[in-house]
Amino acid sequence: xxxxxxxxxxxxxxxxxxxxxxxxxxxxxxxxxxxxxxxxxxxxxxxxxxxxxxxxxxxxxxxxxxxxxxxxxxxxxxxxxxxxxxxxxxxxxxxxxxxxxxxxxxxxxxxxxxxxxxxxxxxxxxxxxxxxxxxxxxxxxxxxxxxxxxxxxxxxxxxxxxxxxx
Length: 166
Known about the structure:
Blueprint: H1 26-40, E1 47-49, E2 59-62, E3 77-88, E4 91-97, E5 100-109, E6 112-118, E7 124-130, H2 131-144, E8 159-161
Antiparallel strand pairs: 1-2, 2-3, 3-6, 4-5, 5-8, 6-7
């Protein structure tokens, strides 16, 4: 479909809780196509939530395939109305975000997660993930709740200027 413009903080939509999708219809599928196209057009991007492109619906995509920190890897995950079922462990690690392009931060997150989602086919599915994939899922769910990684850092000393590589 289309590569969409990613909103940057402090855009108010990024701090807005997204509404449930409930029915996976053609509009929801078109939204996912735009999310996938935008994610894949963005270097080093492993996930994108609908409100990052200005749509306040509970949908996101994640794909950690080939990432050096990934252990579990489900390939392309398309998630509607995600719900965290359980978490375990806690690891602090560096995160970045397309909506906060100039900063990274050390963020505590569960190292293992179980999430229930509605798939692109409209079916309920359960995803068990760990390590980097678990972190990516939590990051995108936070977006749908109007939470940025900056809201999760423990102190201002845990926020850093993003490195620029040439």
